[in-house]
Amino acid sequence: MTTTLAPVRCLAAWFPDWPVNAWWLAEDQPQTGPVAVIEANRITACSPAARAEGVRCGQRRREAQARCPQLTVVPADPRRDEQMFTPLVVTIEQIVPKIQVVRPGLVAMRTRGPARYYGGEAAAAEAILAQISELGVAGSRAGIADGLFTAEQAAVHADPILVVPPGAAAGYLAPLPVNRLGDAELSELLPRLGMHTLGDFAAMSVGDVRDRFGDRGVRLHALACGRDPREVVPRRLPPEFDRQIDFDPPLALAEQVAFSVQATAEDFVAGLAAQQLVCTELRVILRAEQGEHVERVWLHPGCFDAAAVVDRVRWQLQAAAGNAIGSGLVRVRLEPVATDAIAHHAPGLFGSGTDEKVHHVLSRVQSMLGHEAVVTPAIGGGRGLAERQLMVPWGDRAVLRHPADRPWPGRLPDPLPATVFPQRRRVEVTDADGVRVGVDDRLLLTGIPAQLSVGAAHLQLASWAGPWPVSERGWDAAQATKGCRFQVADVTGGAWLLMLDDQGWWAEGRYD
Predict the structure, then answer these.
(1) Which family does it belong to (predicted)?
(2) Containing domain of residue 500, as a range?
């Protein structure tokens, strides 16, 4: 005989249109005006002001903007939603421990403890909503019912609190539409079968539901009947990995700070290792005696050990000394921004070979000469070759002034030259008779390129391609570029990227 446990009495706290609220909080914008969050060109959340103008979830962007021309459209960002929701979760946990984050904008908890402490379920909900309102988040609601699903539906209809009496979950859910189950397939199929409400679906026998819809249908049928079997699973608080050291009296020398922070760095790395983690992205926060505050996020090509952490603290202090910091240092704080499983950074059976040696040598040179003494190349966005190449300090993430994933009409396609000259080199391109080759007004060559002269070297050309007209920054006389690009290959196997402008022929790069 199988015994079905009664649903747990739950309280669900819901924050309508949370993606919009998260954007307001992240951008420090006033929580007014028509705002909509868009994903895949459809509205997924909108503010009350936008709804008043006829904007609805599911609309296409063009339709929403036609209804509300002043609509502010922002892209969906799940990471932003989660980051902005964390402070609210921490605030609720100060009132009621052991809460479950169902999704950003919705939390659930068992009501037994809070009801006893605050003198009733409604009183507990009032305390939670009052605390949330102090954080500047308006419009939050709370639903209390048997089971998580019913409590969530009650929160949607709350004003601002709705309590479904014990044992009344099925009756409360019966008139709600079947799309509240959150299953797109059943939401489309059930109305075609004549079942438009949860009550209609609940009236089916469990056997018929299993035969027609399988185990998934049985689970959703239990929700429609008010028999939600799910337990509230409190979120598991992550271990505290941050480390901090205070100096009294303040320290003025970078070497003194580096020596003093050594033990803290070792404890920081050991704390992560105890959880089988390593730090790949580190935030170092420095605070000085007169209130100066310097914060920076450091990256590592592998993972941080204690020595690497100490190096970053020293480099950051050396860069800030006399500039952003003018007094003695009183505090150093270490925070892991990104972590990874330690197994991903363990050496293989025969070690990591050349990569490990290269990393050790470069890190050692960097620690002796300074952070920017060892750099690696990176390719960014843009049209010109010189503006696309960047030199990034070893271990740092490349910060691209011009993102490479944006459209750059007219840029040189791959493959790019292996060697890009910092300054264009003067060259000459002539035909078989030694006459300089040019381009007329119709972009037709005045001769067939046969020879390339680079300094004292004269190379016979085997093939060529072009011209490709280039016209950039015509509004900026200092950076304007106008001419034609060519690609040529000489008989020795070398290939060159050339530019012809009003001043003559130039070599921009070489394909090695």
Answers:
(1) Belongs to the DNA polymerase type-Y family.
(2) 419-511
